[in-house]
Amino acid sequence: MKDIYELLNDIDIDETEFEEIEVDELEKARVKKALKKSIRQKKKRMGWKKNVAAAAILCGLSVTTIGLTFPAYAGSIPVIGDIFRFLDNGRTGLYDDYKEYSTEINMTDESNGIRVTLNDAIFDGKTISLTYSIESEQDLGDQPILEDFLEIKGVSSQSGSAHISKVDDHNYVGIVTATNLDRDQEDVAKIKWGIDRITLPDQQYKEIKGSWKFALALDATERKDFISEGSSELAGVKVNIGKISFTPMSFIVYYDQIISKEVRDKWHAVDVEIEIRDDLGNSYSGEGNGGSGDGYNMNWSKTFEKLDENASKLIITPQIMLREHTPDNFGSVEITKDGPKEIPIPEKPGKGKEEFVLEDIVIDINGLSTEE
Amino acid sequence: MKCNENNYIQRLQRQKEDALEFIVDKYLPLIKGIAYKILSPLQNDGIIEECVNDIFLSIWNHSKKFQGDAIDFRKWICAIAKFKAIDYYRRTSNGKEFSRDIIEETVEKSAEDELVILEDKTELIRLINQLEPVDRKIFIMKFYLGLKTEDISKKLGLTESAISNRIYRGKKKLHTKAANLDFGGSLV
């Protein structure tokens, strides 16, 4: 006898009559969570005897683990399966392949009724990205601010970014990144991530003090470095592409800018942004990692989404922005013995801002895959 | 191994969870669209959500019964979605006092409908299994998927009166057999 599901195989339904409804990532995540919960419950019911045996063994083990400050728990269902993608929410696609190559950590630390779980970590040789989720009994409002630090051991200058998003009244997910600015890439990163305080802007900046701490060592993902010689110059601004580092989920472009004396005398600062497309017509979205320098001659790096493996050329368009510093957009202080002292902004003839585009830099990456 | 367009059905049938995630990503807008269309008159978003979850769970639990390629798969899950949503509609609206009259006006309630609503869907399935293949299709389209006689006739290349006739005869058969059920008769 066939059941309804088998019978439905024979029915030729006209699926064009159905209309799709727009669904956001949050809703997808919610459905996935509910489904996983039901299928795991089912599995649990089927295997309870095994669980009893496992529980007995665990009892024996737990005696030895008491006292460890490593309250990792297994088998918890993350609120959001792929936080990278969830936070990106289809906007850029930069993080689409991160989850696949990241390491699942799932360490949890609890303090003051708030559980912070470090979900995934990934290190591309330059930047560390961590995803986390927060479970809280009390509502933390729409945009809680974590007073956190992400430290890479042995690195003196680093930049970073953070993003947090509310899932529901008790759950939040976020991403925090740190980029090593002062050195070339490493194969292993020893990192510490901790939160001292959570500030709630929605509740008169109430502070929740606590201590959530994680430490781990991360191996860098596989990567291939490609040294390129491309550069482009116009009106006293020169941009050199130094190195491009390809990882399975992204590629990182290192570039620097050299600014002539004429431009320095006219403008307070110069920024260079790069945009990349390939010979197949793909354009790549990316996120700057920040850079260092004196405001004129700077070293930058920018991470882009995964390279199309069929691409043989990268076409890089540098965009230059010359800026004037005004008291509204800029302030700088000098730390002296008597406390901070404000440095006046020097007068320069360039006013407002000026933007222009340099000629494309074309980099031949043919043979990248055979180089090994 | 990662789940992709080419292997997700296979992986689903092997009960790999990433395939479940894959089909949620791929088909949630469609499945929700179907459930919404049928269930929105109930004005209860909770029901729609529950039904959508139930549809995916059924696809997961019964994935081994599916046969065919990706296009067939899409049709198959559409059919499951539609029959589940109708099932939810019938169950929910049946439990509500106010909608009962409206339903009686718009939808003709048949013995089969009652059977679907009441219980023992397995018995009905057993009865349907005993019909001829063509009648089987007609009955499923009519009573599980809520298709109009007109649409069924187009699909099967039969005239509307032929469909009506077959439904009438099929109903008669089912009535006799269903009556046997009531008396505790065994049909196996």
Automatic annotation (TrEMBL), chain A:
Q: Show where the DUF5643 domain sits.
A: 231-336
Quote the InterPro entries the UniProt record gives: DUF4179, DUF5643
**Name of the molecule in the record:** Anti-sigma factor
Cite the entry's keywords alphabetically.
Answer: Membrane, Transmembrane, Transmembrane helix
Tell me one Pfam family matched here. Answer: DUF5643
Where composition is biased (Basic and acidic residues), the residues are: 335-351
Q: Which stretches does the entry tag as region Disordered?
A: 331-351
Could you name the domain of life of the organism this protein comes from?
Bacteria
Query: Where is the chain membrane-spanning?
Result: 52-74
Annotated ranges, domain DUF4179: 43-136
Q: Which organism is it from?
A: Cytobacillus solani
TrEMBL record, chain B:
Q: What is its EC number?
A: 2.7.7.6
Family matches, as NCBIfam families: sigma70-ECF
Pfam families recorded: Sigma70_r2, Sigma70_r4_2
Q: Which family is this protein grouped under? A: Belongs to the sigma-70 factor family. ECF subfamily.
Among the GO molecular function terms of this UniProt record, one is:
DNA binding
* RNA polymerase sigma-70 region domain segment(s): 24-93
GO annotations under biological process? DNA-templated transcription initiation
* Membrane-spanning intervals of the chain: none
Q: Which CDD domains match?
A: Sigma70_r4
Q: Which InterPro entries match?
A: RNA_pol_sigma-70-like, RNA_pol_sigma-70_dom, RNA_pol_sigma70_r2, RNA_pol_sigma70_r4_t2, RNA_pol_sigma_r2, RNA_pol_sigma_r3/r4-like, WH-like_DNA-bd_sf
From what organism does this protein derive? Cytobacillus solani
* SUPFAM superfamilies associated with the record: Sigma2 domain of RNA polymerase sigma factors, Sigma3 and sigma4 domains of RNA polymerase sigma factors
Keywords linked to the UniProt accession: DNA-binding, Nucleotidyltransferase, Sigma factor, Transcription, Transcription regulation, Transferase
- Which parts of the sequence belong to the RNA polymerase sigma factor 70 region 4 type domain? 123-174
List the protein's name. Answer: RNA polymerase subunit sigma-70
Its EC top class is transferase
